[in-house]
Write a structure and sequence with these properties.
- It holds the Pfam family HTH_26.
- It is globular, with a radius of gyration of 11 Å.
- A two-stranded antiparallel ribbon has the order 1-2.
- The protein has helices at 7-13, 18-25, 29-36, 45-55, 59-62; strands at 3-5, 63-65.
- Helix 2 crosses helix 3 (29-36).
- It has five helices and two strands, in the order E-H-H-H-H-H-E.
Length: 69
């Protein structure tokens, strides 16, 4: 996958659990898990904004482009 999701890393850095972030963002733990595993087909800008607000980070801290070639 060309886009790598670094949400687990940010959760560790902020010492926050997935269920806590899901509750703060207003999404289910299952949907957060799908996002963390890179299995999501899309992410709403409002969800990304909420994640960044609660983890006090930038979108680039969570999403990383990697060249698979």
């Amino acid at each position: 996958m060309a886009i790598k999701i670094n949400l687990d890393l940010m959760l560790i850095k902020r010492q926050m659990k997935s269920n806590e972030l899901a509750r703060l963002v207003g999404i289910t733990e299952q949907n957060l898990s799908i996002l963390k595993r890179g299995k999501a087909k899309a992410i709403r800008v409002s969800t990304l904004e909420a994640i960044c607000r609660h983890l006090q980070c930038q979108p680039g801290d969570i999403l990383e482009y990697t060249d698979d070639d």
